[in-house]
Structures are given as C-alpha cells and as structure tokens.
Amino acid sequence: MYSEDIEGTGQMERSGDDVYSKPIRAxxxxxxxxxxxxxxxxxxxxxxxxxxxxxxxxxxxxxKHKIFLYKExxxxxxxGLQEVIDYIKGNCLKDVPAQEExxxxxxxxxxxxxxxxx
Length: 118
Known about the structure:
Elements: E1 18-26, E2 29-37, E3 43-54, E4 60-70, H1 74-91
Antiparallel strand pairs: 1-2, 2-3, 3-4
C-alpha cells in the first residue's frame, strides 16, 4: 500500500489500487501485508519483505522481495504456513527462550560515558 521512505522525508507514497496495509517492523526488516484490488474489484494480498542497506556512497537502498497471493490460494497458503510454523516451534526452537524471556535493552542496560573523561 505504501512504498518505503526512500528520500528520508518521513512520507510514504500510496498507490491507487490499495485497500488496506499492515506494516510489521522486525529488526532490520519491514514486512508489508497489503490488500490490493484489481480493476474488476477482485482482492489479492501482496507480502513484501523490505530490508534497508547502505550503499558504498553512504546512501540508503532497499532490497525488496514480494509474493502475490490470490484469494483462491488463501486457505492452502494459510494451512501450509501454519504447518511449517508449528514444525519450527515444535522441533527447532526447543532451546530458544520465549520472546518474553529475552532481556530487552533499556537505558539501564548501558553505561553512561562521558567522552571528556576518555
């Protein structure tokens, strides 16, 4: 629904066929779940992964990967995605602490540094 803020203006560009958008910020990546409409008012979903990187000249660029998901595939996609997530949670994350157990960085986690003392 919105393109990235490439120029650093704080504004997102909106395209005309967009119905709804849900951005998910996850570390260095942002995922966009966008509902779009065709000319015939048929709806489909685009899932975009966007990762910001710094070019050699210091400018920012974005790597984007997009999936188009059409309504006739929603059920099969949802079932497959849930099956894979359940598999990962049950077989691959046994030794990984739950999200609420992971200590978050707070101001108290860092030391005050006075550069004049260095």
